[in-house]
Amino acid sequence: MIDETDRRILRAIQGEGRITNQELAARCGLSASACFDRLRKLREQGYITGFAALLDPVKLDRALLMFIEVLLDRTTGDVFQDFAAAVSNLPEILECHMVAGGFDYLIKVRVRDMAAYRAFLADTLVQMPGVRETRTYAVLDEVKNVTALPI
């Protein structure tokens, strides 16, 4: 279980992952060694799973964001496994979630433009194991896009 001091540490590093231990300690009201120990324990206990740089998709030629509902032809263990394995090898797919409801998976895709999306859809997505039907939703405006968890 974590306490409020741990939560302060987690909030701080979510906002600024490259913060120095000295600055983190000062913001959280800890000594540098106590902060370092707490951070190490949070990593060891799995509260912190990694650190990453957030990149600008427009500058990296991945401006078009799409969400796609995927309905499989069968909902059996082997079809789920085959689909999940295929998804894991596709860099265009940023997220893939198995969901309950009227379809089986919701995936988040970033590509260069609509032509690249059409090619991805025709050459890759509909060819994946078990895919029966897809529905695509193009994002017109990213109203909110955060990576920080509310803690």
UniProtKB/TrEMBL annotation:
PROSITE patterns on file: HTH_ASNC_2
Gene Ontology terms: cellular component: cytosol
InterPro entries, per the entry: ArsR-like_HTH, AsnC-type_HTH_dom, Dimeric_a/b-barrel, Tscrpt_reg_AsnC-like, Tscrpt_reg_AsnC/Lrp_C, WH-like_DNA-bd_sf, WH_DNA-bd_sf
Pfam families given in the database record: AsnC_trans_reg (PF01037), HTH_24 (PF13412)
All copies of domain HTH asnC-type, residue ranges: 2-63
UniProt entry tagged with the keyword Transcription regulation: yes
Matches recorded under CDD domains: HTH_ARSR
TM region(s), chain numbering: none
A GO biological-process term: regulation of DNA-templated transcription
Keywords carried by this UniProt record: Activator, DNA-binding, Transcription, Transcription regulation
Protein name: Leucine-responsive regulatory protein
UniProt source species: Edaphosphingomonas haloaromaticamans
